[in-house]
Structure formats: C-alpha cells, structure tokens
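Run log // design_07
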C-alpha cells in the first residue's frame, strides 16, 4: 500500500510547460476508448458501493445479529458480506483490465507514431540527438506515460468514487463520528506532501547515480576491446566501484525515507482508530449510537486513509506523465527538415549528370562557435557527365564523405546547390531520388536478418537468383556458401559475425543488386585484400559502365582508371584531372601517389620518396 510513494518518486521531475494542452492531446488518444471508460466508471461505482457498504453490514451484524444472539441472521449477514467482497474484487479486477487495454493500446499507438516520425528525420537531427540518449529518453518517457494510463488513471477514478461513497455512508450513519474521523485528514495530506518532496529528492539522487552506473556499464561493454587492449580494466573497475557505491548510498537513504513513511501513516491510522473508539465508546455509553455504528466507523477509519493518500500522490504522477507526454509529443512534432512536397518531382529515372555549384557545407555549427573553421566544403563546383567515374581523394577529414553525402541528400548544402540532370536535388521527392542511387559506406551495417535479405535490402522485388548473381559479382558468393546456412544465415547483432572486409563484400553485393544509376563507394574496398579488391573492381567496372559513380579511396592504385580525380583538401578542390594529367602536373595528387607507390615498392628505404 505504501509502495505508491516510491513508485511516484521514481518518476522524472519536471512539469509540462503547457499541461492543459498536453492533457487535451492525451485525451484525443484516449477518446476512441470512451466505451472502456464508461465501463470503468460503472465498475468503479460498484466497487465504491461494496467498499462503503461493507462496514455498514458489519455494523448491522453487530447490532442485529450478535447483539440479539441471532445465529441465522448472523449467517445471512456473513453470506451477504462475502458477496459484497467478491463483487468488489471482481469489479476492481475488471477495471484494471479495461484500463490496461486502453493504456497499452494508446502507448503502442504513440510508440509507432514516434517511430514513423523518427524515420523521416534527417541526419542533422540524429547528429544532435545521439541514439543512446534518444533511446533512453523515449523508453523512459513512454514508461512514465504507461504508469499514468495503465494504473494511475484507474486508481484515481476508483479511489475518487470509493472516497465519495465512504464519506456519504459515514455522514448518513452519524455526523459526529464522521467529523471525528475527518480530523486527521489534513494531517495525512500535509504529511504525504512533505514525504513526497523529500522522497523525490532522494530518488532523484538514486536516478542520477544509476545513470552514471549504467552509462559506465554501457561504455565498458561497447569499448571492451580498447579497454582490454590498453589494460585499463583495473582503472575502470575502480571507477565503476566508486559510482556503484554512490548509487548504493543514495538507495540506502532513499529507502530509509520511504521506510519511515509507512509506519508513520500506521501511527496516524491508529490515532484515528483511537479517536473513533474513544469518542464512539463515549457516545455508546450515552446511548446516542449503537455499538454496531462504532464498529462500522472503526472499519472506515482503517479504510479511507488509502484513497486520500493515493489522491494526494496522483497530482505528482500526473505532472510527471504530462511532462513525459509533452516531450514525446515534441518529438512527434519535430519538424521534418526534408519534407516531401507536392511540387516535387517523383523521379523514376535519372541519367546521372551531377552538378555541384559553389557548394558550401557545414554540419550544424556548435553553439556560439560558427566560425570560418566550421566549413567542411568550401565553394566546391564540379560538373559530372552521365556515366562518368569520379574519384575523390584527399587527406583524412578533407570532406570526401561529406561531399558524397550531399548527393542522396543525407544532408543538404548550406549554400550553393547540388543538381541531378539539371534539377536541384531538393526539387525531387526524396524517396524516389534515393532509389536512383546506391551507397557503400566506410562501415557496412548489417541488419539482424538473413544474408539474402541483407543483400535484397535496397531492392525488395529482386529474386533469389538476382541476389546470387549480385553476390557473385561482388565476389561474396564463396564466402556466403561457407556460412552455416548459406544465403539463409542470419547476420547482424543476433547472428553470425563477419569481418569488416566480409561485411564490405555484402555491402557491395547490396549496391550491385540495386543497379543504381548513380553509385557511391566510400572506401568500399578498404578492408578487403588486394586480390579480392581486383576481382571486385572487375565486377564494378562491368556494373559501372554507363553509370555515374563516385569512388573514394585512400589506396590510390584502385582509382587510377577513374575518368577524373578530384583532390580535396580542407574542403577545397585542389586539383581535377585524369591520373595521367595530375601526375604530369606534379601537384598534390602526384605527391600522394608517389609516396604510396614508393612505400609499397621499398617500404624500408626512406630515400625512395
Ligand atoms: N556528422 C558530423 N557532424 C559534425 N562534423 C562532422 C560530421 N561528420 C564529419 N564531420 C567533420 O567534417 C569534416 C570532414 O569529414 P569527412 O567525413 O567528410 O572527411 P573524409 O574526407 O571523409 O575523411 P576520411 O578520409 O577520414 O573518411 C571533418 O573535420 C569532420 O570532423
Ligand atoms: Mg570519409
């Protein structure tokens, strides 16, 4: 019964900035279930009648059956009393069941709206809101809302009716004893509020410290390889045990506070019973009331502390839930920065002419720091003919990945424009536009699904034969056949782990299968051995014929065949030309190439460069 205060105190702080708007919006979610609410109210009334009626029955038993030593009547009353309690229990069970259905359906609907919306948000949003934070926030908020919709609401409805029923019954029985019983209500109310405040403070500490503990665990598991390689395990264990101890201490003091609350309320209840017993006894001696009425009041006093306490806590629960709902709604309402507009072209085929015109690009500047240094691409212009193979080279961090991510609009340019077939990419509908291209990234992400489905990821209507053909072109067929269930082997987090190079092969098969008109390969073959790379390149050459491609590679030997090579440095285009032209020019590319070539031929000879 006193567990409530702990549950409530564990909820996050914070009040909804606009409670009534949020409450109304939650109401919209609940509205379709009005039939359930009618049922809940009906059942709550039945519950209230049984709760308020039982003590009267007990009183009548005392006065009419026990007082007159009437055994038959005693039995009859006992049976009726039993029926009261059983009906009460059934109606309480049903209300929770009804409300549980409403709560879970509402939550499921909010969750799927949230998921659907998150899918529409751009990478800029996810850069600002790291996956881990986002996930814990969503899970936590949804949990808090579930507490309100699943239990809080039905408890408050039930308790309200019970309280009204009890108060009416008491006043009907005897107003003097009623007032005596009500004396302690303000005390209980104030006490609950005081306890809630200090318990909330204590539980905030436990929450913060458990946050530290779990982020420590999360980071240690994610970074376990590095930790072990650098033998940081002892240092980490020490840090962890400190945080763990802090959490333990916070929990111990929080428990001490909640542990004190229960007994104090018991004392209060005992006081109430003493008052009613003393004053009631006096009234009986004065022949003003019957002993049965006093017995009924004694039962009420033991009863009605619970609903009052629950109601004084409800406010806090509701506030937390509204705050959580507001955060959830604000995510659902988060503006889509790349919306699909009716004016956009639903492109079905592109020739693959790509034009960058005076493109300036930066990721969202950190607060107050948007200086000149933030530019990742500076005034980049490039005209690519359909079918051309463009290689991008340049030092680490020079902006190659950023450059290619503007083509499928993973990000939008800050200034300037990117156009495909002469049309600004923002004038195409996003999804069909992205269907025109494939990307193999530096890191290939495999989903927890079969090899087959992972390859089919970008072209859901491809047949199994197509999948196998693409895998063969990517030189991945042999690897796949060596897996336990071949093409049906489950990969990803819950399946077979592949090496980075093996993952890249699957990624390339995925891209080949989609047969895009524009292909982007970002270090796509950086983790496979040279022999495999040559095989993949032959396959890609076949695939790339007639298709526009952008290839990023640090291993310059792999891009010698490109039509044009673009050299980037600090976001600026330094040189453009074919391999032979750039070598002849003797600039940055020639320099890079000669160094790589020299280190490959005579790695031990420092004079070779
Ligand atoms: N999501 C991001 N948010 C903010 N800044 C980013 C983001 N991604 C990259 N940057 C910054 O943009 C710059 C260019 O990064 P980019 O990934 O384009 O380089 P790159 O040429 O592909 O490097 P590499 O050869 O190492 O892959 C870097 O300075 C990097 O710090
Ligand atoms: Mg990169």
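design_07 sequence
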């Amino acid at each position: 019964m006193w567990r409530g205060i702990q549950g409530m105190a564990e909820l996050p702080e914070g009040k909804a900035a606009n409670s009534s708007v949020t409450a109304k919006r939650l109401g919209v979610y609940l509205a379709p279930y009005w039939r359930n609410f009618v049922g809940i109210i009906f059942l709550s009334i039945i519950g209230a009648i049984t709760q308020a009626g039982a003590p009267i029955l007990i009183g009548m038993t005392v006065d009419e059956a026990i007082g007159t030593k009437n055994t038959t009547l005693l039995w009859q009353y006992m049976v009726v009393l039993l029926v009261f309690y059983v009906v009460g229990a059934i109606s309480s069970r049903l209300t929770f069941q009804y409300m549980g259905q409403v709560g879970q359906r509402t939550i499921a609907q909010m969750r799927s709206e949230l998921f659907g919306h998150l899918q529409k948000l751009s990478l800029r949003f996810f850069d600002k809101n790291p996956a881990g934070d986002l996930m814990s926030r969503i899970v936590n908020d949804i949990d808090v809302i579930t507490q309100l919709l699943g239990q809080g609401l039905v408890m408050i409805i039930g308790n309200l009716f019970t309280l009204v029923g009890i108060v009416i019954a008491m006043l009907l029985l005897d107003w003097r004893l009623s007032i005596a019983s009500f004396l302690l209500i303000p005390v209980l109310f104030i006490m609950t509020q005081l306890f809630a405040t200090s318990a909330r403070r204590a539980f905030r500490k436990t929450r913060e410290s458990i946050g530290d503990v779990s982020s420590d665990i999360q980071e240690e598991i994610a970074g376990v390889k590095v930790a072990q390689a650098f033998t940081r395990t002892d240092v980490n264990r020490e840090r962890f045990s400190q945080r763990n101890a802090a959490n333990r201490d916070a929990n111990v003091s929080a428990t001490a506070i909640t542990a004190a609350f229960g007994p104090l309320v018991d004392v209060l209840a005992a006081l109430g019973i003493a008052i009613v017993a003393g004053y009631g006894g006096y009234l009986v001696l004065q022949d003003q009331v019957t002993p049965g009425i006093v017995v009924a009041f004694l039962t009420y006093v033991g009863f009605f502390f619970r609903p009052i306490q629950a109601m004084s806590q409800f406010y806090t629960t509701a506030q937390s839930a509204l705050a959580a709902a507001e955060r959830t709604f604000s995510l659902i309402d988060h503006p889509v920065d790349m919306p699909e507009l009716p004016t956009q072209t639903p492109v079905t085929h592109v020739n693959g002419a790509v034009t960058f015109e005076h493109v300036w690009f930066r990721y969202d500047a950190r607060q107050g720091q948007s200086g000149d240094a933030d530019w990742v691409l500076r005034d980049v212009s490039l005209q690519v003919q359909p079918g051309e193979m463009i290689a991008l080279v340049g030092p680490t961090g020079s902006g190659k990945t950023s450059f290619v991510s503007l083509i499928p609009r993973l990000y939008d340019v800050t200034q300037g424009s990117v156009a495909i077939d002469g049309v600004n990419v923002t004038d195409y509908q996003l999804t069909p536009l992205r269907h025109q291209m494939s990307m193999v990234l530096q890191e290939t992400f495999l989903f927890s699904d079969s090899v087959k489905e992972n390859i089919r990821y970008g072209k859901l209507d491809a047949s199994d034969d197509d999948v196998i053909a693409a895998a063969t072109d990517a030189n991945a067929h042999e690897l796949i056949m060596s897996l336990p269930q071949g093409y049906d082997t489950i990969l990803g987090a819950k399946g077979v782990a592949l090496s980075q190079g093996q993952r890249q092969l699957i990624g390339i098969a995925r891209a080949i299968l989609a047969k895009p008109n524009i292909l982007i390969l970002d270090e796509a073959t950086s983790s496979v051995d040279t022999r495999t790379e040559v095989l993949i390149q032959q396959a890609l050459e076949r695939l790339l014929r007639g298709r526009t491609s952008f290839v990023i590679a640090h291993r310059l030997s792999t891009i010698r065949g490109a039509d044009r090579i673009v050299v980037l440095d600090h976001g600026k285009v330094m040189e453009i030309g074919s391999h032979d032209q750039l070598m002849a020019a003797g600039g940055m590319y020639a320099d890079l190439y000669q160094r790589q070539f020299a280190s490959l031929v005579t790695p031990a000879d420092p004079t070779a460069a």
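The domain at 18-174+289-332 is CATH 1.20.1560.10 (ABC transporter transmembrane region fold).
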